[in-house]
Write a structure and sequence with these properties.
Elements lengths: L11 H21 L4 E7 L18 H9 L1 E7 L5 H10 L3 H4 L26 H7 L3 E7 L23 E5 L14 H29 L12 H18 L1 H5 L2 E3 L2 E5 L6 H15 L5 E6 L20 H23 L6 E7 L32 H4 E7 L8 E3 L3 E2 L2 H9 L16 H5 L9 E6 L2 E7 L8 E8 L22 E11 L15 H20 L10 H4 L17 E2 L9
Helix pairs in contact: 9-10
Length: about 600
């Protein structure tokens, strides 16, 4: 046999060439394999106890429950913050909010005004930006709440289209009761409390002015001495103007860079969101695409179309939940109708837990149900504020009706969608999220998060520890909000719980809870459990030190300067200060 020929008589060089060609073809085929689409639903303030598949039997959530039947239900899914703005930043970037400056040292931990100068820094990288750079069509339809302008009223430096989205339809700020005439005011209760807190100083100032006037220090003819009073009156006038125009200036609907409703009309808003979501899917049926739908529901003020009003046993809140569930169902049905479900990962969750302090002026409870868990929205590390419903569905790829009890985070979506799309994580920054896919598929049951750090704004409030090769889950809590009235589970006198000073109780030593045996966080370890407590605290303290070493100073996007209303940043589709228009071209719902 000739050494230069194979047993079949083919030259070895030809065989080698065929092998190389086959390898190249296999590589091209692997590259051509369809990448998954993503539909990511994020509810607002929905409690884990509001959903049927998590045990609720008084609200109807068949569409969300169907996702759980056809996919994977996560029982220990943790939001990276218990307040809207930082939680959403963490979700989009896969990073703790303290890394991107969406933290505060004051009472205010989110953006209140459309004309604030803070936002998600342009240096941050969202999963939308990375997916777009790798050929994905990216759309966002719903609530942004991560800033808008930096220096002028239309620079839109923080706009979703500058963070990786091709298309945006939604509200740039938040949905609060002040956006709905007749539904009360969030600012009213807060202002009353502030006046009460500062009343000695206010009364002292009034007394000093009156006394000075009576003593002749401020005679009427001495007009120059009246300047402070004139200035004060001007400021009060500006304040009156601001609150009289609050709805027009802050309750805005946008499409891409254009304001299309100011103030927003909430009538059939959910139906318009569904229409735009389905239109985006139909326009990108060839894929791949990312559709992010952060719903306006179920944050107050509540609203619902006629078909859902009065449909629940829980008033307007329950009606909103029913409409939210319907919206999820309509968008998922569109995926099925377009034969996209087999190649689309669907994720449903909430940005944080239900808001326990949301009660109307007439005493109607407007917040959600956090199940057995303690606390709620804005309460730092208590389970009720951060343990949220979460479901992942991908028919034919993920097992149906699977339940995952391991600790996961909303930051994990960042790493998961990038890994499935074949995109490497950024190497120039710390990414705190982990790839969930092995856990979702059942390849492992172990959490990739040995430690999760729970912040109350700037302050480290609690740490969750899942020891390797153990079924235990421990929670260490460093301080707790002081509930009012005493014995309650909320801060009813301040509308939200605060994170510092006289509003909290420091724990020394820290409280230690066994979350497996005591998920309600009702019974911290006692002195008799000294050895266990010491073991847990030693491990957590070492992790905290390592975590702190990974943090670098960044500008606070929620500083007093960045959250203040600045007239030159005010978006306006009319003639300032009378900003009003209605240019929404979304057709009436025909579903």
């Amino acid at each position: 046999m000739n050494d230069e020929h194979t047993p079949r008589g083919l030259p070895k060089m030809l065989l080698r060439a065929l092998c190389i060609l086959l390898t190249m073809l296999m590589h091209v085929a692997s590259q051509a394999a369809p990448r998954p689409n993503y539909v990511l639903f994020l509810a607002d303030d929905l409690g884990i106890g509001d959903v049927g598949c998590y045990g609720n039997d008084t609200l109807r959530t068949p569409a969300i429950d169907r996702l759980a039947t056809e996919g994977v239900l996560l029982t220990q899914h943790i939001a990276a913050a218990s307040v809207c703005t930082p939680s959403r930043a963490a979700f989009l970037t896969g990073r703790y909010p303290i890394r991107n400056g969406l933290i505060s040292t004051t009472r205010i931990r989110l953006f209140l005004f459309a004309a604030s100068s803070g936002g998600l820094p342009q240096s941050e990288i969202t999963f939308a930006k990375l997916l777009k750079n790798h050929g994905y069509a990216t759309g966002m339809i719903g609530k942004w709440h991560l800033g808008m302008n930096c220096e002028t009223a239309n620079d839109h430096c923080y706009h979703p289209l500058n963070h990786g989205f091709d298309y945006f339809y939604g509200i740039p700020l938040n949905n609060v009761r002040d956006c709905h005439i007749g539904q009360g005011s969030v600012f009213g209760s807060g202002t009353k409390q502030m006046i009460k807190d500062e009343s000695p100083y206010v009364l002292g100032l009034i007394f000093a002015v009156l006394a000075s006037w009576l003593c002749g220090v401020l005679p009427f003819r001495g007009r120059i001495l009246l300047l402070p009073i004139i200035t004060l009156c001007a400021l009060l006038g500006l304040l009156v103007l601001f609150f009289s125009q609050f709805q027009n200036w802050n309750c805005i609907l946008m499409e891409n860079h254009e304001i299309i409703q100011q103030p927003i009309n909430f009538e059939n808003l959910t139906q318009r969101i569904v229409h735009q979501a389905i239109r985006f899917i139909e326009s990108n049926v060839e894929g791949p695409f990312l559709l992010y739908v952060p719903f306006v529901h179920v944050h107050t003020a509540h609203f619902a179309a006629n078909a859902f009003r009065g449909s629940s046993k829980h008033g307007v809140y329950g009606d909103s939940v029913h409409e939210l569930d319907w919206a999820v169902g309509e968008i998922v049905k569109a995926l099925d109708r377009l034969h996209l479900s087999q190649n689309t990962l669907v994720y449903f969750s909430s940005d944080q837990g239900g808001h326990l302090e949301e009660i109307s002026d007439t005493g109607v409870v407007l917040g959600g149900n956090n199940g057995i868990y303690k606390g709620g929205k804005a309460m730092g590390g208590f389970e009720g504020g951060i343990r949220v419903p979460a479901i992942v569905r991908w028919p034919g790829v993920l097992p149906a009706s699977r339940r995952v009890d391991s600790a996961t985070s909303n930051m994990d979506i960042f790493s998961t969608v990038l890994a499935l799309a074949g995109i490497s994580l950024p190497q120039d920054r710390i990414i705190d999220g982990k790839d969930l896919f092995p856990l979702l598929q059942g390849e492992t049951n172990a959490s990739q998060h040995e430690f999760l750090f729970h912040y109350c704004s700037l302050y480290l409030n609690a740490v969750r520890w899942t020891p390797p090769n153990s079924k235990s889950v421990w929670k260490v809590i460093y301080f707790s909000p002081i509930f009012y009235p005493p014995g309650s589970n909320a801060c009813y006198h301040t509308h939200v719980c605060y994170c510092y000073g006289d509003f909290v109780e420091q724990h020394e030593p820290p409280l230690v809870f066994d979350l497996i045996q005591d998920p309600e966080e009702s019974h911290p370890l006692e002195p008799k459990d000294f050895l266990t407590q010491k073991r847990v605290l030693d491990a957590v303290n070492k992790a905290v030190e390592k975590h702190k070493e990974s943090l670098f100073p960044v500008p606070s996007q929620l500083s007093l300067n960045n959250i203040l209303w600045k007239p030159w940043l005010q978006m306006c589709c009319g003639t300032f200060p009378y900003c009003t228009c209605d240019r929404d071209r979304t057709p009436p719902w025909e579903g």
